[in-house]
Structure formats: structure tokens, C-alpha cells
Amino acid sequence: MERRSFLKASAALGCAATVTGCKTSSDEPNKVPPVAPVDEVMDWNFCTGNCASMCPLKVYSKDGIMTRVETENDDDVIDGENGQVQSRACPRGRAARQRVYAPERLKYPMKRVGKRGSGQWQRISWDEALTTLADKIQYTINEYGNEAIHFTQATGGGFISAGNDGKGGFAYPLPHSMRLFHLLGGFTATQGGYSAAQLRWAGLATDGVMRGSSYDQMAKSDFILAFSSNPRECQMAGGGNSYAWTRYTAGKELWIVDPKYTDSALGIETEWLPIRPGTDTAMIEAVIHELDENGWIDEDFVREHCMGWTQDTMLDEIQDEEPYRDYIRGLNDGIPKTPARAAKITGIPEETIKRLARKLHEAQRPFILQGLGLNRSKVGEQAVRAVMILPWLIGKIGKEGTSNGGFCGVYRPDAVPVATSPNFLLENKVKQMVQSSNIALAVDLGTEFNGKEHGLFEQLEKQAFMTGNRTPDKSLAMPIKFIWSACGNSLVNQTQGAEYSERVYSDESKCEFIAAFDIFHTPTTRWCDLILPAQMDVEQNDVGFAQTENTITPMSATSSITPAFEAKTAWDMHCELAKKLGIWDEYTEGKTDEEWKRQLWEERYSHHDDGSGEFPHYDEILEIKHKRFYRPGTKLVHKDLLPGTKFNTPSGKVEIYSMTLREMALATTQPDPKDKMPATPQYFTPHEGYEDEDTKHDYPYQFVTSHDKRRTHSLNHNNIWLAEAMQSAVWMNPLDAQKLGLSDEQIVIVESMSGKIAARLKVTPRILPGVLQKAQGSWRQLNDNGIDIGGCVNTLLGPFYSPFVKSMCSHTCRVKISAAPASIVLDKYQD
Ligand SMILES: Nc1nc2c(c(=O)[nH]1)N[C@H]1C(S)=C(S)[C@@H](COP(=O)(O)OP(=O)(O)OC[C@H]3O[C@@H](n4cnc5c(=O)[nH]c(N)nc54)[C@H](O)[C@@H]3O)O[C@H]1N2
Ligand SMILES: Nc1nc2c(c(=O)[nH]1)N[C@H]1C(S)=C(S)[C@@H](COP(=O)(O)OP(=O)(O)OC[C@H]3O[C@@H](n4cnc5c(=O)[nH]c(N)nc54)[C@H](O)[C@@H]3O)O[C@H]1N2
Ligand code: SF4
Ligand SMILES: [Mo]
After folding, report:
1. Which residues belong to any copy of the 4Fe-4S Mo/W bis-MGD-type domain (predicted)?
2. Which of 107, 421, 572, 655 is most buried when burial is the number of CB atoms within 10 A of its CB?
3. Does the structural domain 701-819 have CATH classification 2.40.40.20?
4. Using CA atoms, how far apart are residues 565 and 556, in angstroms rounded to an integer?
5. What is the pLDDT at residue 236?
6. Pocket of ligand 1 contains residue 812 by CB under 6 Å
């Protein structure tokens, strides 16, 4: 009732906004504001898929039905004027209507009636659903303790980031679930995340910082070297990284190292180095060999700031270990890491590697960066560190225009998401955490799952979610018996080892209960015992803010759309569940959602207010709905570098030899004998790597599972407009296609050691020979012959993890490929 009357009021305001907000006079052809039919209403809302942009959307509707979406397009702000940039939504945001009305929308609560995974469901009432859920929660806690409860990483309806992403309004379900379960005594959380676990740990272990300079520094650079970085697809929002990437690389010498010719190249690059996946470390070793041989290493600078290059810089306790220079020169293994050697491994010509070394020598202000692609490899830790030591060896760091080889992006004022306020989240009393991508393994192994081998961690800070300290001496206190997925598809689809995960979850005696709160019936909900329908971002009222370069956009989102069937908001669902659990008073603290939003916004206010009064108070943002303001800044990493500077690493130096890796190598064991954890960045072949003798003959192609513009992870897989705009195909180089007699558009079967998928083939020179790529995120769907006709790449990946961080290594896989039999029919969204 309350909400409907609010909607009426906001609909009236929306009408007013469409009348007054439309400027009629504009002589610039690309700035003509579309004229809304008079009975259409407009609400500001935002797009919450996890691409870390949270673009504002203008959502138009009529009589509760969404009619269309527009992006920020007001002509009061011209890009760049007053420093502001608009945050223009990408095609995924603009296709929101196809999400809202997709046939897979969950309509009602449902319980499983057949065997788990059999797809037999029965519609039930919300009352029955929440009674069942409350009973199962109570039963699990009483019988096994809170450690037996686990939340999957779930990033669909927003994203919590303690850093500077500023995503996650109040409506994002995960914080609500966290609050509720924290009140009940906590749960085993995930650690590390899927995105950047290896980069974070291995990067911090190197220079104590990891994150690099902001993109605007590229404008002052004379040489940009980018590894596995694709901002034009991975941060597509008009005012975000993609725009800044284009602006600041303009006219620059830009070298891109990537097996895939991404949209971030498209002709602006000086050189594309199509490297074989997982071999970057070999190329960097060779670059360093070339620098060393020519006397281009800045030895004085390295001695001042770094540990581990030469014997005299090694700490006393590691004097018996090999310094990196000796390894590069091959003094002990007899293998000098020459460009000729690296050329054979990487596929990058010797001459190019030598030229790259010379470029780095001649450049005054090289900007070296990496995206997250390297870090999601089997031994990504080595590659991450190899890139990060390059600027130190040439002594070109801390000066304008440089960066540290870490992960970079636009300068963003440090924003704190609304619903991550400690007062809302409370403290998790369960301290153990499981590496995000190893959950099925934890369920399978129960209390044998341990920190020595598999990735068990202990929560670091009070409200921490996804950050923990390794505990190699501990095992899981209790098997995982209950899994809760609130806006995630990582139970099966998004986690490598989909086949293995399904086997684990099909054993109902292991994890006894799985429940999800989602907007769609997904490959995750198929494995649930109970499914609860959620409202989508654009169906709800919320507060939050977008951030693009130098610009903050606080918003109060409203909705005039009638929510789908019986879908509930996160607040309503959790309140009702709290009531069933007898903790409604504690959960709500007697406040309404409106009162919580006000309180949390005001709690965050002081963080965002710089004294200028630009950041709006709650009442102001409710009234004005959308405000954009400029907050300039830049970030130059290690800018205060002085002789004797102390770094946040065990030795206080930049660690070319990492004491952290050494310590972990001693404290942990590796299930795979090919996995190693050398303390200096070294190339070697892991399982399914380029030179892996055990797999390369049966599975001759390397396979990369990148992120692309068609989806945000699995979100939008079922968006028919986006499916039409971009095929979810397997990419293959024309030389390979010719060799195998395969042609463009043909349906192929891709098979790995772990599973088989069917998909269309795209024959394109945008992928190097010997490598296939398909974007992650397609929905897994097995046909009667066990072939995944949905084309989910995690069907092909085994349940493996990296040696040091024990995290996702989804870019390391070997496959074979053949023409599909004529009988194969693809899932409609793949075709
Ligand atoms: N092979 C391979 N696998 C990968 C990756 C890779 O590179 N390769 N990348 C990994 C990475 S980096 C990540 S972050 C993970 C992401 O994996 P997930 O966090 O699982 O993200 P999504 O696949 O987007 O799933 C989001 C879910 O949220 C639901 N949802 C969307 N909006 C709402 C909402 O408003 N409310 C509710 N309740 N639900 C909503 C969607 O239906 C969907 O089921 O995937 C990982 N998986
Ligand atoms: N459109 C869209 N945007 C997104 C997302 C999405 O799903 N869709 N997901 C968001 C999230 S949560 C994340 S974590 C980020 C992910 O962002 P990234 O991790 O940066 O994206 P990826 O495409 O996985 O990897 C980037 C590039 O690394 C390359 N690569 C893979 N292996 C290697 C290698 O061994 N060496 C080199 N040099 N390159 C390699 C891939 O070909 C790819 O072009 O994107 C975010 N933005
Ligand atoms: S860039 Fe991301 S947040 Fe913006 S519209 Fe696209 S998917 Fe949504
Ligand atoms: Mo991610």
C-alpha cells in the first residue's frame, strides 16, 4: 500500500520531469532529446550488473509497464565541460526492458519436488517458503553450528566494494542477507573473490600497493604497455574507463599484450602482441634478460628500493636462495632466459621482444599496467609479479606518467557504498572463510578441506567480506550443509568445474539445503531446493551513486514499474524471514526501509562531503533525484619515492624475491605436482598450460574464457536483444579453421578433459592461431548426450585453483574442437 501510493506520487513527479526536463532547443544533431509521449513517466534508476559502473538510467513506463530506457543525455552537460563526464549506459543497461520481461523471470516461490537438479518444481506460497527456509536455517545452526552455513559470492544486483567502486545501493540483497545471518551468529563467508584474488595477494606481496596510477597519467606517458587489459568491454560506461582509455591513449605509443584482439585495441594500438595464454612470464623474463645484457637495468635504483635482484640485496635468511638476476642469466639451471627461448614459448618473435626491451629503456615515463586477465590463470601469481617488477628494474616509477604494472583505472573519488555501513552489516562471528571458487570442493571434502592445500582463511577485519588471512594450519570446522545464493550464479555456472560442482551438489547428504533469491531461473536455481523471486533494480526505489572519472552522481532511484508477479524486495523478504526466525525486532531495529536508507545515507554523508556541500543530504537527493558534480583528482602511484622509502612488504623493500611467497610455499602443499610457487617470478608450464605434455597432444588448443560486452557475467545471457547484437561464439583463427576444415557460423563441439560444449564458430584473425576463446557467462544446459548446448565455458574447466592464492584460474584450459553432428540444437540464446 505504502509503496503504491509513493509510486503514484513519484509518477506525478516523473511526468513533471518529462515536461520540464526536456529541452526543446538543441542545434547539435546528436543531442536532440527524444520526446516522450505525454502519458509516459520517467524515473531515474540505475543499472546494477557487476561491471562496477552503476550507470544512471532513465526508465520510462506507462501504466506500470516499462516502455523504454534512456541514458544520461541531458544537454546541460557536454562531455568534458567543467570537467564532468556523463555516465552513458552501455547497450546492456539500455536493454533493461528485455531483462525485466524475460521469460525466465521467477514469478513465485517454488520448492523442489523431484531429485535435486531434476528440474521438477512446485509453486508454493511465500508463507510456506519462508517457514521452510527459517526451519532449515534453525535446523542447520542447531545441528551443525553457524560454520555449516555458507553464502556464495553473488554480484548480480549490485556489488559491494570496500574500495572505490561505489556500487551497491540499499536494494542490493547481499547486505540484507549478511545482516540477518550475522544476527543469527554468522556464516562461513567467501574469501578472495573471483575477480582479482591472485593480483591482490601477489601484487601486495610485491610492492605493498598493487593498484596503479589513474588513467589520466597515461596522457603524460611516452610509452604505454598493457597486459590483459580490456576496459572498452569491461568498463563500458560512457564516462568510465572505456572513455578515459580512448582519451588518454590517443596519439600515444601503445603496446597491447593479449591473445585476443580486444575492443580496447581496434586500431589505436601501436603494436598488438598476440601472446600464448599463460606465457607472459616467459616474455618478461626475456625482456629482463635483454635489459640486463645491454646494461639497461638501473642497478643503483634497484639496490636502493628492491630486494632479490642480486645476491647483496637478499636478506640474510635467504642467502642460500637464488637471486633473480642469476635465474635470468641461467647461472644455476643452465638456461639463460633469452628472447630466442621466449619466442618459442610465447609466439612473440625474438625481434619484437628485443624491441620491447629497447622501448622500455628509451622511454622516460613508461606506463605499465595489467587488467585482470593475467591473474585468472593457473599460475597467474607469477605473471602478475613479473609485470609488476618491470618498472622497478628500469627505475622508472613514481614519476609523472608512470605506473607500477598493477591494475589501473580512472581516478575516482573514494566512495563508500550505502549498504556496507557497519551499522547495517554487523559483525560476522564466524571467522573462517573459504576461497570463493573452491566452495564445491569444501562441500565435497567437508572437514578435510584445509588451509594447507585448498584455501582456508580467517576473516581480517570486523565487517570484512572477501578479505582474510591464510590459515595453513586449519581445517574447515564443520562441513558446509546449507548454501544461500542471493543474486549470484556461481554455485555452478560461474565457477570453474561446473561438471564437478553438479556432482557434488547432487549428493543431498553433503550440502543438505540450497536456496536462492534471484530474478531468474538460472543454472544455479536448478540446483536449489527452494527458490525465491526477487525484484529487479529498475523495479525498486533505492539510493546510491555512480562514479565516473572525476564525477560523482548521487541518485535516488524510483520506480513506476509494477514488480513481476510475487517478486519481493530484499528488505521485505528479509524482514519476513526475520519474523519467522523470531528476530524481527533486532533485524529492523524498529525502523522502516526508508528510515534505514536515510540513516545509512547520512552515516556515509560525512565520508563524501568535502566541505563544498556538493554531496546531497538524504532529503535533497530524494527531491532532486539525480545530481552530478565534479571532484577532480589524479593518482600517481609511488609518487613520494625517496631513498630509504619503506614499502608495505615483509622486508620493507619492493620484493623481487617475495618473502610472502616463500613462507606460503613452505607452509602449504600442492595437490598438483606441476604447481610451484617460486619466490621470484618464473615461467613454467602448469597443468593444461602451453607446453603441458600430459594434455597438449589430446587437447591441442589453448582456451581462454574472457569477459565481453554481450553480458555482465551470466546476467543478460537471456537478453534477446543482446543475443541478437552479439553472438556467443567460439573464436578461432582462420589458419586453424582452414587446417581443420571448419567454417564461420558452423556449430562446433569443444571438448576438454572436463566436459563438452556446443557453440557457433567465429572465424577471425582477432585470436591467435592455436588459441580459442569464448566469453564466460553463457548458461549451462546439458542435452541428453551430456553436451552443454548452452555453451557455458565452466563446463570445460576443471575444479582447479592457483598454487599460491588457491583461486580461480579460468584462463588456463586445453581443448579439442570438431564439427558438431547435424543433430545438435543450440540453446536459443547461443544461436
Ligand atoms: N570461466 C570463467 N568463469 C568466471 C569468470 C571468468 O573470467 N571465466 N569470471 C568470474 C568473475 S570475475 C566473477 S565476478 C563471477 C561473477 O559471478 P556471479 O557473481 O555469479 O555473477 P552473475 O553471473 O552476473 O550472476 C548474477 C546473478 O544475480 C541475479 N540478479 C541480477 N540482478 C538481481 C537483483 O537485482 N536481485 C537478485 N536477487 N538477483 C539478481 C542474476 O539473475 C544472476 O543469477 O564469475 C566468475 N566466473
Ligand atoms: N561487459 C562486461 N564487463 C565486465 C564484466 C563482464 O562480465 N562483462 N565483468 C566485470 C568483472 S566482475 C570483472 S572481474 C572484470 C574482468 O576484467 P578482466 O579480467 O580484465 O577481463 P577478461 O576478459 O577476463 O581478461 C582481460 C583480457 O585478458 C586476456 N588474457 C587472458 N589470458 C591471458 C594471458 O595469459 N596473457 C595475457 N597477456 N592476456 C590474457 C583476455 O584475452 C582478455 O582480453 O570485468 C568487469 N566488467
Ligand atoms: S556499463 Fe555496466 S552499469 Fe553501465 S549500463 Fe552497462 S552494464 Fe550497466
Ligand atoms: Mo569479477
Report:
1. 40-104
2. 655
3. yes
4. 24
5. 83
6. no
